[in-house]
Design brief:
This protein is 50% helix and 16% strand. It is globular.
């Protein structure tokens, strides 16, 4: 599912409103107004959010739209993520580890194998806090690993960092 927040359609506007209401209700999170600390180039980045938990997708969608990101794609598992990457290579992938069909580790390995010449940053998100799991994520090709529940500021800083690295490498 693609949600482009810059040009709302009837469907995407409804989905965005549902995201905001549901995420705030389910999590009790209150986000501050959009913070434009990232460059406009970063905010125009296409970000693929991959998580089988709808609540997690909603929270990430809300966080990113509140931060000013406009081009968000949502996939519910690793297999859907691979299909979305084949359709349109994103600038960044936020990928849950524990998912049915194809987990985050396997999806990362396949993305790296299918796109060896492209720099596609992948940040793994997981409730797994075991250092071995974090190490495994980096070994299969992830650029970073963030534990859930995540700190909003830390996640946005990591996103900014990998997008800046991508901008430099793409030049």
């Amino acid at each position: 599912m693609i949600v482009n927040c810059s040009r709302p359609t009837r469907h995407s506007a409804l989905f965005a409103d549902e995201c905001i209401l549901m995420a705030r209700f389910l999590t009790g999170m209150v986000f501050c107004p959009r913070q434009r600390h990232m460059s406009d180039t970063h905010l125009r980045a296409t970000i693929l959010i991959v998580d089988d938990n709808e609540q997690n997708c909603l929270v990430l969608h809300l966080l990113l739209t509140d931060a000013g990101f406009e081009n968000l794609i949502i996939a519910r598992n690793g297999q859907e993520a691979l299909a979305e990457v084949a359709r349109q290579v994103p600038d960044l992938i936020l990928l849950d580890v524990m998912m049915p069909v194809l987990n985050g580790y396997e999806a990362t390995q396949q993305i790296r194998a299918n796109y060896p010449d492209q720099y596609i940053p992948i940040i793994l998100l997981s409730a797994l806090e075991d250092p071995q799991e974090r190490m495994k994520g980096i070994q299969v090709g992830a650029n970073d690993f963030v534990s859930k529940p995540f700190d909003k500021g830390e996640l946005l800083a990591r996103i900014d960092s990998v997008l800046e690295r991508k901008r430099i490498l793409d030049e």
